[in-house]
């Protein structure tokens, strides 16, 4: 059976409404309101504790608490859920005719225990929501590592496909404060002369704000997505060229598979980490052709990264174009990197 879904969200609210601040805090020693002072003298020095959540008492009385708890447990600990008003209807659909049939399921946010649909905020920053940031961190790990060793829907045999871990960065927009590493884990002084601490807030900030190319830095981030997209197209071309195949023929022989994450560097520029793999024509489930090697892939990545450029806007008579930085790091991943040379199995990583 196939389903078609219609969803509307009328009024997304950014945050949960705060608990009404009915508790009046008084500093010890401050005069009590006249009516209380007359009741009991000691009250002047007693810090008023906030009353128990009035909503909680009401919910317990209504018997809606179990429902609310069930709804909250689906948030996985998210502390700043997004509240949505709206409704969603699932219909049966005949895939032969495309005709929409009877209603399968209807959900109205007003009928939910909390009176609204609660959705995880999915913020990646720990300071905003520790629970959601942690989920993102683990998802990223699973995504990247499954591309390496199989698992999570990726066939086990991809562990034998040629694959590399590539890091593509933005070009320089001007020198920034950094922590250059010296021999044996030592830290050398920055160009400003200071040996910066790891937590130094100045790290990644321009050495000379007057000459730093802020315009280009900001615009580069805005064009990083298209730049990556074009890079992936160029890479297929470069791989095909090295295999002596036309674009069209290439698709019948092999496929270039990607798993990438975009991260912010200290200097605020986006950079990409990616596992890039050569597969057979249908992907991870088909063996790659004999010519497919990690060396060929590495060579093709270098060529594609050097060639790719995206035209940006013309601002104040300056035409911006965006390229990757020269700092390209490509490392071959071998099965041995993951399991001391043994065959990688699901059991070994479980
Ligand atoms: Zn959250
Ligand atoms: Zn410095």
Automatic annotation (TrEMBL):
Residues 1-40 are annotated as: Disordered. It comes from Streptomyces ruber. This is Replication initiation protein.
């Amino acid at each position: 059976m196939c389903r078609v879904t219609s969803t509307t969200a009328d009024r997304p609210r950014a945050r949960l409404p705060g608990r009404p601040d009915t508790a009046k805090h008084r500093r010890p020693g401050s005069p009590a309101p006249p009516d209380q002072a007359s009741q009991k003298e000691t009250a002047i020095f007693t810090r008023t504790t906030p009353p128990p959540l009035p909503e909680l008492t009401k919910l317990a009385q209504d018997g809606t608490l179990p429902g609310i708890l069930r709804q909250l447990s689906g948030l996985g600990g998210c502390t700043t859920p997004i509240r949505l008003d709206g409704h969603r209807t699932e219909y049966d659909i005949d895939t032969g005719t495309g005709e929409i049939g009877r209603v399968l399921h209807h959900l109205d946010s007003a009928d939910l225990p909390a009176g609204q649909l609660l959705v995880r905020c999915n913020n990646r920053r720990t300071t905003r929501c520790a629970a959601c940031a942690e989920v993102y961190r683990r998802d990223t790990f699973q995504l990247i590592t499954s591309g390496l060793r199989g698992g999570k829907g990726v066939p086990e045999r991809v562990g034998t496909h040629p694959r590399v871990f590539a890091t593509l960065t933005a070009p320089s927009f001007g020198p920034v404060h950094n922590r250059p590493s010296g021999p044996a884990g030592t830290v050398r002084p920055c160009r400003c002369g200071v040996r910066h601490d790891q937590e130094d807030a100045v790290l990644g900030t321009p050495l000379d704000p007057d000459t730093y190319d802020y315009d280009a830095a900001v615009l580069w981030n805005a064009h990083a997505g298209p730049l990556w997209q074009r890079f992936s197209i160029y890479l297929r071309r470069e791989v095909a060229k090295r295999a002596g195949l036309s674009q069209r023929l290439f698709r019948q022989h092999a496929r270039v598979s990607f798993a990438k994450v975009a991260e912010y560097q200290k200097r605020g520029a986006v950079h990409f980490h990616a596992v890039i793999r050569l597969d057979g024509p249908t992907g991870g489930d088909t063996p790659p052709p004999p010519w497919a090697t990690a060396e060929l892939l590495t060579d093709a990545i270098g060529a594609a990264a050097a060639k790719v450029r995206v035209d940006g806007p013309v601002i104040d008579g300056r035409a911006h174009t965006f390229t990757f930085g020269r700092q390209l790091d490509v490392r071959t991943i071998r099965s041995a990197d993951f399991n001391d040379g043994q065959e990688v199995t699901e059991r070994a990583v479980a």
